[in-house]
Structure formats: C-alpha cells, structure tokens
C-alpha cells in the first residue's frame, strides 16, 4: 500500500490522454487497416436513445487566478461560445490565503484573515474577479469550498507550497490541506460567502450553481480523517443552506472509485448523508443535491511510443456509478465527475513526463471523443443520472509554446482538443442509435481498453428538429500515426427527403491543428505577430470539404471517407 503522499505523487505523475465521452448505443469498429476493408457505421436517426445531455460542458483547473488574466479571459470566452448551454467551471483554492498571484498548481484569494483579536475579516475582491469573469460569459461556477485559510488551519506552517514541472517539489500538501481549528468559524466563512454571492449576483443566479466541499479528500488534499471530512461537510452544507435554502451542494470529490480506499471513503460519506448523525443538527442524514467523484487514466511510454489507457479511466467511472446506484435514495441525484482526464497532473509538462506527449496533437482530441461517448453508455447501464464530466484542462499563462501541459490552448492559441468540444457543441437534440454489432463498445473497452490490431472507429449521433450530426473517430491507445487511413462508410436513415446541407468538419494532421502548423513553422518560441495570427486560424475548427447540398431519398444518405488514425470528423446535416 502507498502512503497518502506516495499515492498522490504517483497519481500526479501519471499522464494519459483520456477524456471519457460515452454515447449509448454508439459502437462501430474498424477492420484491420492493413486489410483495406471499409468500416461500415449505421446511424438510425429515427431511433432515439435519450437526450443529448451536454455532459462535456464542464471544465476546471488548479490555478484560479489565471481566470482573469489575458489568455485566461480569451479562452473562457471561446469555451463559452462553443456551447448553446451555459458551461460549468470548477477551480481550486478559492479560500486559500495569499496575494492572488498565479503560479503552477497554486492560487489564492485571501478571502479570510483575522485581526489582532482573532475576529474574522472577509475579503471578496479576488473571488469576485474570478466569478465576475465567469458570469459575464454566461458560465456557471461549481463553487469549491476549499482550501483552508491560514488563520484557520490546524497546522498553518508551512503554508505556501512550491511546484515546478520537474516535480522536485517535496510535500505540496501544506497548511492549506488541513482541517479547521474551529469548524464554526469555517462554517461562518462559507455562510458569508454564499450570502455575499446572493447579494452580488442575485438569488436566481446562485440557485443555478453547484457548491462542493473540498477536493480529493481521500488523498493528500485532505490532511484529516474521513470522519473529519464528513464533519466538515455537515458544517459547510448547513452554512450554505442557511444562506440560501435552495442552493445545491454535494461531494465527496474522491478520486479513483475503483481504488479500494477511495471506494471505502465514498461509501462512508454516502452512508453518513443517508443515515448518519449530523454534526450540526444532531438529526439523521445530511443535505446532498449532487454526488461527485474523479476518474483518471494512466498513460505510459511503451517501446518509445505513448500508450494511453482509456479502459482504466472508464473503470473508475463505472465503479463510481456502481457505488451511487447501490443507494436507492441517492441513485437519481445528478452526478458530476469533478475531474475526468487521461491522467492526473495537468501541470506536469512533457519535458519531464514523456508520456504526456499526447497532449499537443490529435491523440488528445480523438481520445476525448472516444471516451466521452462511452460515459453515456456506462451511466445508462448503471441507471444513474450523469449531469456532467469536468475536463481538467485550461491554459498556463506565460509558459513556453506547446510545452506539453494538459491545456486547451497555449499562449492564446487553441489546441486540437478544443475543437472536439466545438464539435460536441454542435450536437443537439436526442442521441440516436448507431450500429452495435462491432468490435468495440463500452463493455469491451472497460475490459481491455483499445489495444488490439483494430482501432476504435466509432460514432456518436444526434438529431433535433432541423439538424442531424454524426461524430466519427479513429482512436487507438497506441499513438502510431504511420498506419494508413481507414476507409469508413457512414450509412444513415431517418433524414428528411429532399435537399439537405452537409458540412463536414475534421480534426487531423492537416485540419484544425495548430500544433502541426507550429511545427511546420519550425517550432518558434517567439513567433511573429503574423505567425501568431496563422496559428490562431489553424487552431479553429475547420471544414474538411466545402459545404454541399445532398439529395436524400427514402430518408437515406451515405457518406464515404478516409479517416486517419487519431482523427475526428463531424458530419452536420441541416434543413
């Protein structure tokens, strides 16, 4: 068994590109590329499989002070514009003491200090700057209650930790990770924060937010016991509800439900909210409106090549869903996967973690498409209510270009993975059936990931009153881009007869790919203004071919294409 800190160091050191997208009934598998046999994907737009819930419209990051910086604001604007629904944003360190200066894996707001007599002093200036930036863009905060202010920590010194991409950081879980020396004072801080939020943004707005208690309390982020976390939750939930009875709060944000100790922690928490004695009221149970946990993959370098492990991430998700489903009174509550990623350390660069080489190019974008699609299926199989899955990736201000952090943009230039989310933003209405008689589905990936001779060539499809969309990807855990493209035939029925407009979008080595454009420039670390403009254009979602009118007869249409390894296509039909 690892100690708590050893486990976190191992966890933070992982790197795999794994964004879990799950789509119920969306399974298609290519044949072996060397055979040249086409992959046939059937889509039935008449067979609905539930709402196309925007589970992808959730993002988060460690460094809250990046929010209102130049590139942070630019990226948040772009994220808000890719979705028709409000995007949810989760950040750490909203109650941490400090001067508000950003650093890797660090942030602070100085929301709470005490005067010479030990009386609370509240300051909302920095938190307001963060939340104002979200609200101005129509985004919804997932307001994380944490971490511990220095004046309330049971072990305040040392308080500030230091982090570098080389991970020669020692123990990063310093004074901010400890329980409060006074639970009532901490609860009063939470109460005042919620009350201030209602005063600033209005009751109706704050009612749309989620509040959550802490982050990953089963590892080093919480230097207390499980029972002390449960006590903290009770005090926080009571404070939030006193300030706004209609507010939504939840937890426990454990990471790795497939781990035995994480599962034990999660079950202890859920047992308490259902049947435990409340630390504040003395009554049975605790208020809970949303259940949260984290799921991560584990990439490695194998024979000089990055090998992802999407199966590991999906097993974490499945384990979390299974735990929630075992509580009859809780199984219908919304679930938010508070961090859902290929690995566990966004601030670990490719420089010191070669397994993170997936992050700049199309492996991250295809992984994201393939993984998220399966989340729908796993949730449906377990009978739970998946609300969203947070992609823990943002941007790292003033860092070298394409350094290999887990981010959506570098120096204001969008990476290919952000275009996968742009594609998701175009998929509206109901999910519809895609052929199931293929090699990969969520169950086979749970069992063995995507490691065989065949890649995962699959699709997710949706339809509303005026559009039909099909996302198709060619994913494999091994990042071998030397294999030839696969021939794919998408056969669709359920489209309206007559002329229909087709727009075909693509992410591959030539399209929607700022990283390849940067490399063709010679990988400049000081690109000229003209080069920056070219990179910004290359980072946008691009058409694979010109828009065209196609004729639909008897509701049927067929599209044939070559799809390279780690590429993603979106077919959009509109009428």
TrEMBL record:
Q: Keywords in alphabetical order, please.
A: Glycosidase, Hydrolase, Signal
Q: Which family does it belong to?
A: Belongs to the glycosyl hydrolase 39 family.
**InterPro entries linked to this entry:** GH, GH39_cat, Glyco_hydro_39, Glycosyl_Hydrolase_39
Please list the residue ranges annotated as the Glycosyl hydrolases family 39 N-terminal catalytic domain: 41-538
Carries keyword Ligase? Answer: no
- SUPFAM superfamilies from the entry? (Trans)glycosidases, Glycosyl hydrolase domain
* Record's signal peptide: 1-22
Q: Which organism is it from?
A: Ilyomonas limi
Gene Ontology MF: a single term: hydrolase activity, hydrolyzing O-glycosyl compounds
What biological process terms from GO does the record include?
carbohydrate metabolic process
Instruction: Specify the domain of life of the species encoding this protein.
Output: Bacteria
Active site positions, chain numbering: 216 (proton donor)
Protein name as catalogued? Beta-xylosidase
């Amino acid at each position: 068994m690892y100690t708590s800190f050893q486990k976190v160091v191992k966890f933070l050191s992982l790197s795999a590109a794994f964004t879990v997208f799950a789509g119920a009934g969306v399974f298609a598998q290519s044949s072996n590329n060397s055979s040249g046999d086409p992959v046939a994907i059937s889509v039935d737009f008449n067979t609905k499989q539930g709402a196309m819930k925007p589970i992808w419209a959730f993002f988060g990051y460690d460094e809250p002070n990046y929010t209102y910086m130049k590139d942070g604001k630019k990226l948040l604007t772009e994220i808000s514009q890719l979705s028709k629904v409000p995007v949810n944003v989760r950040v750490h360190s909203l109650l941490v003491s400090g001067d508000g200066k950003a650093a890797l894996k660090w942030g602070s707001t100085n929301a709470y200090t005490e005067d010479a007599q030990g009386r609370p002093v509240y300051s909302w200036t920095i938190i307001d700057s963060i939340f104002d930036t979200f609200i101005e863009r129509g985004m919804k905060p997932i307001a994380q209650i944490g971490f511990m202010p220095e004046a309330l920590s049971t072990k305040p010194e040392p308080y500030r930790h230091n982090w570098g991409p080389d991970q020669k950081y020692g123990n990063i879980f310093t004074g901010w990770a400890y329980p409060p020396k006074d639970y009532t004072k901490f609860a009063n801080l939470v109460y005042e924060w919620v009350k201030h939020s209602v005063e600033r943004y209005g009751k109706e707005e704050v009612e749309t937010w989620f509040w959550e208690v802490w982050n990953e309390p089963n590892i080093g982020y919480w230097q207390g016991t499980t029972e002390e976390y449960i006590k903290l939750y009770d005090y926080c939930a009571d404070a939030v509800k006193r300030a706004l009875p209609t507010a939504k709060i939840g937890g426990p944000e454990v990471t790795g439900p497939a781990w035995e100790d994480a599962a034990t922690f999660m079950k202890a928490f859920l047992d308490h909210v259902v049947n435990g004695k409340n630390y504040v009221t003395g009554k049975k149970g605790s208020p809970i409106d949303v259940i949260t946990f984290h799921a991560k993959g584990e990439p490695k370098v194998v024979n000089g090549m990055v090998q992802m492990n999407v199966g590991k991430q999906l097993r974490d998700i499945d384990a979390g869903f299974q735990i929630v489903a075992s509580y009859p009174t809780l199984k219908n509550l919304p679930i938010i996967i508070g961090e859902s990623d290929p690995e566990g350390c966004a601030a670990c660069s490719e420089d010191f973690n070669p397994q993170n080489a997936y992050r700049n190019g199309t492996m991250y974008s295809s992984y994201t498409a393939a993984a998220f699609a399966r989340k729908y299926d796993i949730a449906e199989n377990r009978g739970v209510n998946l609300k969203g899955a947070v992609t823990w990736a943002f941007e790292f201000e003033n860092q070298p270009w394409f350094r290999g952090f887990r981010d959506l943009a570098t120096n204001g230039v969008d990476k290919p993975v952000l275009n996968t989310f742009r594609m998701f933003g175009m998929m509206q209405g109901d999910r519809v059936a895609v052929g199931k008689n293929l090699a990969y589905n969520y169950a086979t990936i749970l069992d063995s990931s995507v490691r065989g001779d065949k890649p995962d060539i699959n699709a997710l499809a949706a339809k509303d009153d005026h559009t039909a969309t099909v996302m198709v990807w060619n994913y494999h855990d091994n990042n071998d881009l030397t294999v030839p493209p696969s021939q794919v035939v998408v056969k669709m029925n359920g489209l309206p007869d007559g002329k229909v407009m087709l727009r075909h979008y693509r992410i591959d080595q030539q399209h929607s790919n700022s990283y390849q454009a940067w490399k063709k420039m010679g990988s400049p670390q000081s690109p000229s203004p003209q080069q920056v403009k070219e990179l910004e254009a290359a980072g946008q979602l691009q058409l694979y071919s010109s828009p065209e009118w196609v004729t639909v007869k008897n509701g049927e249409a067929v599209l044939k294409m070559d799809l390279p390894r780690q590429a993603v296509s979106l077919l959009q039909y509109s009428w």
